[in-house]
Backbone:
């Protein structure tokens, strides 16, 4: 599991930062990539990475401001020309369907894959046997959502050495034991499979938030998250401006991380006024509140290790 930032700027593209797009790489977990937002030129940014558009399985749109969605029509169309034939689902606020359908229709774009568009509300927006994604509405000038990606706990490791010590050789019976079933051996001995499986492996939690003021919904989404991705559009000295424009400061992002008990904070969505070393001011301010903070740049990647 890895976060790869394709764009980390706010509002308009800048020389150092393109507008927002974040890839959650789940190649080992499901052989797929999930995108969070898709600002202008996201597909150009992808060309500079190892991401394969055909592997993009889900796209989660936080809100409908242009710097978060203007790259979507191009990416959806290009995916057909890049071997993309597997289904793709776009999740986003009400209006995302009209935006996509209009762009595809008026440009006479033909997709070679099944595209589903799901207009979301608060609650669980995606769930299968491995992952769940929960959405909550944040505090922005338009409906804006944050997403909590929860990896479900995995079964414990099979204690192979313990089995071999009892003379139980590898075979189909190992699968039965790993499932925790009661198993009868060839000699008539009955064993409880649960005694031969280690403790469950705790799943990971990643919170990716859209544009927002400081709010309780952010804290709920980020509770005990392994990684919290939070906007930091402004420095602390511009807190009034941040409030007026429904955004957050780096300090406010750090305060969310503290209150949520998150393990790591990554700052993104940086205003173009903070070019070069000026952006380091945001990092310093956040680290004074929450030390385990990183400042994302375009093409930054962060591995998310499994909990011990």
Residues:
């Amino acid at each position: 599991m890895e976060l790869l930032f394709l764009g980390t700027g706010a509002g308009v593209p800048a020389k150092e930062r393109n507008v927002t797009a974040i890839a959650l790489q789940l190649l080992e977990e499901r052989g797929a990539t999930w995108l969070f937002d898709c600002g202008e030129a996201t597909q150009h940014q992808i060309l500079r990475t190892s991401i394969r558009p055909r592997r993009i399985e889900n796209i989660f749109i936080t809100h409908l401001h242009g710097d978060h969605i203007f790259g979507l029509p191009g990416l959806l169309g290009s995916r057909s020309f890049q071997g993309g034939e597997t289904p793709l689902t776009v999740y986003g606020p009400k209006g995302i369907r009209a935006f996509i359908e209009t762009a595809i229709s008026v440009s006479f774009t033909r997709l070679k894959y099944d595209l589903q568009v799901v207009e979301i509300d608060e609650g669980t927006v995606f769930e299968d046997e491995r992952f769940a994604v929960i959405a909550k509405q944040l505090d922005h000038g338009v409906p804006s959502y944050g997403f909590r990606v929860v990896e479900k706990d995995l079964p414990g490791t099979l204690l192979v050495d313990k089995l071999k010590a009892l003379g139980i050789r590898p075979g189909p019976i190992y699968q039965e034991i790993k499932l925790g079933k009661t198993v009868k051996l060839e000699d008539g001995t009955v064993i409880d499979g649960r005694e031969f499986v280690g403790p469950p492996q705790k799943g990971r939690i990643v919170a990716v938030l859209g544009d927002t003021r400081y709010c309780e919904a952010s804290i709920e989404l980020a509770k005990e998250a392994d990684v919290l991705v939070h906007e930091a559009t402004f420095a602390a000295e511009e807190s009034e401006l941040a409030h007026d424009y429904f955004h957050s400061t780096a300090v406010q992002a750090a305060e969310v991380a503290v209150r949520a008990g998150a393990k790591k904070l990554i700052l993104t969505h940086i205003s173009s006024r903070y070019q070069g070393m000026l952006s380091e001011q945001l990092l310093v301010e956040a680290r004074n509140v929450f030390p385990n903070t990183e400042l994302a740049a375009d093409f930054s990647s962060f591995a998310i290790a499994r909990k011990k």
